[in-house]
Amino acid sequence: MNFVVNGIILGSIIALGAIGLSLTTAILNFYNFAHGASLLLGAYMGYTVLTEFLPRLGLGGSTFPYLSFGFPMIIAIIGSMGLTAGIMIVIDRFVYKPLRDRGSGPLILGMSSLFMALMLRNLVRTIWGPSVHYYSNEIQMVRELPLGIRITPDQIFIIGLTIVLVVLTQLFLKRTKMGQAMRAASDNIDLAMITGIDTEKVVIWTWGIGTALAAVGGVLYGINVQLRPMMGWYFLLPLFAAVIIGGEGNFYGALAGAMTVGLAQEVGTPLLQRMFDSMNVQVSMTGYKPAIAFVLMVIVLLVRSYREE
Amino acid sequence: MNISGILGYLATFAIAAGAYAIASLGLNIQFGYTGLYNFGIAAFFATGAYVEGIITGGHSTEHLGGFGLPVVVGVLAAMVVSAVLAYLIGIPTLRLKGEFLGISSLGIAETIRLILTNEKWLAGGVWGLGDIPRPLGNLVAPKLYNWVYLGLIIVVVGIIYFLVQKITSSPWGRVLKAIREDEGVAAAMGKNVYKYKMQSLILGSVIMAVGGAFYAHYIGYLSPESFRPLMGTFIIWAMLMAGGKGNNKGAILGAFVVWGVWTFTEFLVNYLPSALASRAGYINAIFIAILFQVLIRFRPQGILSED
Questions:
Q1: pTM metric for this prediction
Q2: Residues B72-95: pLDDT tens digits?
Q3: Residue A215: inside a domain, yes or no?
Q4: Is some CB atom of chain B closer than 8 A to the CB atom of A294?
Q5: Among A18, A132, B122, B197, which lies 20 to 30 A Cα-Cα from A126?
Q6: Radius of gyration (Cα) for chain A, nearest Å?
Q7: CB of B10 within 8 Å of any CB in chain A?
């Protein structure tokens, strides 16, 4: 049962990244290999706000009842969303937009973003160092809920905030003018342009929303586990797997894909371990958790290949 | 530093650049001629190196290997294993949009690295695989050995260059170029696009594995850390893009130029303030990443344009 809870928590974090990746894939028409770096930057931006900015303003220290953090963390999350989204929009203006304007194909943009991820990862290592960081050194008490669910209050916060953000994003896409323009652009960007939609504005909003959601995902991973320079890279395959399983540009698909990947990694690992143990095969499955998302993705691609024929 | 020291340093430099040049030639077949985006070069480079290490290496009770077989057998085995790997990754991806090969090859490189890290019985896990012999090592005194190995690398790069040049200028090579320019047209001409892409992917990956095999003898000790995305994949992409995609001379030139830039910046970062010195490797990686962005923005054809 606890594996399921862990799977839902991981799935929530992946979902925040996958919704943004799905949007950028459909609207900008390229696979952003630097989206994992948005989670990474988000986590470290939150860390900077929390440990550098807020103490100077005399804010800090207070914690909410039950949780390992307090009001400063809420400010850190909002600050991280803004800062990370700002950085990615600037990168789009100076790196991706010139390539787009030149008519470079989606694969050139994908490759450019892959090297952007390399740069951002090493920038984080240069500034914050290669070792891990934590938002809080406090050890959280695990709560026993009915049905044998064991969960910390922080983890309930993670799931709750994800639900709130998912609902808000969906409301934005459905109810606001910009959200509708984004959905139109994700269906067909040329058609959207003809109908008078300012596509450059749509592009900026897409980067902004997609990156801000990923930034929250990064902070939540930091709360649940830790901050480390490789976290963005390790999220890349689960994010792609979630988007490919759910179908590019499909909001609920990305959500379902993220939950599938999260559950597969957390529930699939112990199940496979038990299977190998009973077969007397000596293998430690925990080392292969990251590969599970990849295997799922390959299966989906195989199915798609057969449909193409 | 005296003259022989500098010369020895140059020999080591050229050996490493030569091993990378082989991988760069492999990528040129895949990307330069066929337009396939392989973001998991590390998978094939590492496979080549590890298979070579296991087949030719000394006996160990800790992991598989100790066959002590000749280098030729090692290289052939490395080629076979990487061909199978390339085939497996080609099946689910080559019928779909190009991005999916990129994502999946990246995934296979990470999975290979996980296997090499976790499975101690196979190749020593994080402790790595040592005791890789020096081919033709008993010919000369150990002090002069680097020159013998450099000669061997030059011969191998030469042979592969000659073969790749021959293949890519053949009718088969022209079909690859047609696929790169417009898949639909190539298909309309009656070419089996999937089959050609698969052949190109396998051939390129096999060549990368040969590069990895010779890299193994140069480095003498393998660990999964040597095949992180930066040193296993990104740097080889930078080499091909710098030298000139679709140009085999460019692929080799790029390997030497980028390896030169890498070595030079590694030397420069020694002069950084001590607070940053421990992070010099990261700054070097940032530099390679920026170099790549500048290349695809301002000189996408590379130093040598396509011939």
A1: 0.91
A2: 899 999 999 999 999 999 999 999
A3: yes
A4: yes
A5: A18
A6: 20
A7: no
